[in-house]
Amino acid sequence: MSAAVRERRVDARRDPPSQVFVALGQVLFGADVRCCGHEFLCFGDGRCQWIGEHARLLKVRMCTAVGASSGADNRTCSRAWSTVEHPAEQEPWFCECMTDDATLATEIAAGAGELLLTLRAAAPYEHYGRELGRRGDHAANAFILERLAAERPGDLVLSEESADDAARVDAERVWIIDPLDGSKEYGRPGYIDWAVHVALWQSGKGLTDAAVAQPAIGAVYSTSDEPALAHEPLGRYRPSIVISGSRPPAFIRDVARKVGADLVPMGSAGAKAMAVVRGEADAYVHAGGQWEWDSAAPVAVAQAAGMFCARIDGSPLEYNRPHPYLPDLVICRADWAPALMAAVSEHTDAPTDSARVAMARAYIHSLISHDASHVRLAEDAWRVENGQRTGNSGIEIRDRLENGAEYRQLRRVRDLTFHEWHHDVVARFLLDITSGPNEVTTVSITEHFDIPAGDIRSIVAIIEPLPSGEHT
Ligand SMILES: [Mg+2]
Q1: Which residue from 462, 439, 438, 305 is spatially nearest to 390, judged by alpha carbons?
Q2: Banded model confidence at residue 69, pLDDT cuts 50, 70, 90
Q3: Mind listing the pLDDT tens digit for each residue in 242-289?
Q4: C-alpha of residue 376 to centroid of ligand 1, in Å
Q5: Angle CA(355)–CA(361)–CA(371) in degrees, nearest 5?
Q6: HSE-up of residue 454 (Cα within 13 Å, Cβ side)
Q7: Whole-number Å distance between alpha carbons of 202 and 319
Q8: Burial of 248 from C-beta contacts in 10 A (0-12 / 13-18 / 19+)
Q9: 288 CA distance to ligand 1 centroid (A)?
Q10: Distance (Å) from CA 268 to ligand 1 centroid
Q11: What's the maximum distance between 2 C-alpha atoms anywhere in the chain?
Q12: Hey, what's the torsion of the CAs at 127, 188, 178, 295, to 10 degrees?
């Protein structure tokens, strides 16, 4: 968007009333003029004028208009005008022209997408893989936070890449963002299934505005888009369900058989949801654990495009909860929802993890995978192992999980059970460790996790040899 349609502040006292307002009265409801309320008249090209007492005479309306056409050059202005209250009666009033929330989400998602494409194109080959994903996460997060702080300084943010701020739960407006959804795919040359998610949640309204960018295919989808193209009528072809390649729902093969659908693995929740919005797939079903930032923007965009969106038990998807864990969802074409949801409910009986158990499980999973990108650790997290301090910060613990030589020998987690109460989760399992050529030792592990909010605060591990003679 050009500088001409960027936000502009006008000091009304330096822009005194003039005869132009008399003429403006005649075109007050024309496409190129909007009143921002009180005593100002704003033009599509960003100028605002004080009209004082004329305001009442002209019966100007409070402007909530979005999508005003710019008279200057015929662009779509797509902005809402709003006033900023004057700090004191004698102070000049200011009128601020704001980009509306859906346009802002679109601009930010597109901007972060461009940044990610540039970063990826410039990355040396040795940075590809997890390192590139991490750089992309950080760069896109910084870009989005900076834009939101500049454009919406009063709003709070829930980001995958930032520490959680408990104040957001009581806030009126919260942006829920995943700066780079599908970091793994982003780090792989040629992969296109990664996305940028920017969604706005408002108290009492839920998700109101959002955008999902898929930079690798040059696409940005928004809640203000025209309704999606209709899917082909049901029964004209064999439908498809997109699923996570790494964490497909345990029940999905039974469901696919029941409804006669093909399964298509794909990375990035945003890419999967947008495949449904575009009509390339008929549903996206997930049950392998997810966070609010994974689904907020895709769900808002899909809902705006007329898609059915719900938890797998049919209950509504709710956002900005104290614990941002939202483990499952279904996004599908609305006319297929009854049949698909019936098949899903027939085949889902396994309970899903609670948020805290999911966090503990992600940690234990990383012992073997050496990928800690899904492990939620507080900045000041600490770890103790049989009385010895083995970690003094979230960064240090994550680094050890991914690069520590002691973790390289871990082979398999078995007989894993969880016990949860209050903020506490205890995991008990057997761990197979390579102890020599063709030699495996098994130890018994008990790990206590303290998880007061959206990340793990501490881990206390007890590692015991199995009693001699005990065979596993
Ligand atoms: Mg991400």
Answers
A1: 462
A2: very low
A3: 999 888 998 999 999 999 999 999 989 999 999 999 999 999 999 978
A4: 12
A5: 115
A6: 25
A7: 10
A8: middle
A9: 16
A10: 9
A11: 99
A12: -160
- For residue 54, is pLDDT > 80? no
> Crossing angle for the helix pair 252-259 and 337-347, nearest 10 degrees?
140
Give the domains, in start order, of the chain with CATH numbers.
3-98 (no CATH), 101-222 (3.30.540.10), 240-347 (3.40.190.80), 355-465 (3.10.450.50)
How much is the pTM? Answer: 0.69
Do residues 44 and 75 make contact, with C-beta atoms less than 8 angstroms apart? Answer: no
| Distance from residue 464's CA to the centre of ligand 1 (Å) | 36
The rounded Å distance from CA 274 to ligand 1 centre is 16
- Mean of pLDDT over the chain: 80
Kindly give the distance from the C-alpha atom of residue 180 to the centroid of ligand 1, in angstroms, as a whole number. Answer: 4
Task: Identify the band that residue 354 occupies on the pLDDT scale cut at 50, 70 and 90.
Answer: confident
Per-residue pLDDT at 21: 40
Q: What is the mean pLDDT of residues 2-8?
A: 29
- The beta strand positions in 353-398, using DSSP E, are 377-385, 388-391
- Look at residue 53 in the predicted model and tell me its pLDDT: 44
Give kind and range of the element (H or E) at residue 258. Answer: helix 252-259
8-state DSSP, 130: H
As a whole number, mean pLDDT of residues 90-102 equals 54
Helices and strands: H and E segment counts in the chain: 12, 22
CA of 316 to the centre of ligand 1 (A): 23
Query: What are 235's two structure tokens?
Result: 């029964």
On whether the CB atoms of residues 92 and 11 are closer than 8 A, the answer is: yes
Please give all residues whose CB falls under 5 A of ion ligand 1, grouped by chain where several chains appear.
Answer: 160, 178, 180-181
User: Residue 134 Cα, ligand 1 centroid: separation in angstroms?
Assistant: 9
3-class SS string, 6-43 = CCCEEEHHHCCCCCHHHHHHHCCCCCCEEEEECCEEEE
Q: How far is the CA of 303 from the centre of ligand 1 (A)?
A: 21
Tens of pLDDT, residue by residue over 413-444, are: 999 999 999 999 999 999 999 988 888 999 99
Sheet holding 456-465, edge to edge: 388-391, 377-385, 456-465, 439-450, 424-436, 410-421
| Residue whose tokens read 């064999």 | 238
CB atoms within 10 A of CB 317: 20
For residue range 251-262, list pLDDT tens digits in order.
999 999 999 999
- 25-34, 171-180, 188-197: least confidently modelled range: 25-34
Ligand 1: distance of its center to the CA of 221 in Å? 18
